[in-house]
Amino acid sequence: MIMLSAPELIMILVVGLVVFGPGKLPEVARSLGKGVREFKKATNALSQALNAPEQAPVQQQATVQPQAPQPAPTAPETPAAKAQPATAEQPAQPAKPAYQAPTQESVRQQIQEQSEKKAE
């Protein structure tokens, strides 16, 4: 750990006073103290989590029996629905991801579209 002597500590305080001024210095010291306190709390919490013995997860027994899947309610048939042939099985379509990361090509296309809009 770094040990500061009295002259070094006074020099740091003088520089802090010159840089921040007498009005801001207590506020800066207070926020610095809060930051150090939060860092110590986080460090202690992490060390306790690492040193704590692992506990086996407690599984709760389900008292409610699982229900059988219920068929979907059918809507009354309309003339338009009767005209279309019904397919027994539809091929399963893969679900689209909620977020798709942009590729270089898609970014290039967006930039080109934006430049075209600006040119108009």
Please tell me about this protein's structure.
There is one protein chain. This protein has 120 residues and is mainly α. The chain has helices spanning 6-51, 79-83, 104-119. The protein is flat and about 75 Å long. The model has no long low-confidence stretch (mean pLDDT 76).
Rg value: 33 Å
Task: Tell me the structural class.
Answer: mainly alpha
Shape: flat
Q: What's the helix-strand series? A: HHH
Overall pLDDT: 76
Please identify the oligomeric state: single chain
Number of helices: 3
Count of DSSP E strands?
Answer: 0
Can you give keywords for this protein?
flat; mainly alpha
SSE blueprint:
Layout: H1 6-51, H2 79-83, H3 104-119
Compact overview of the structure:
The chain is an all-alpha fold and 120 residues long. Helix content is 56%, strand content 0%. It has helices at residues 6-51, 79-83, 104-119.
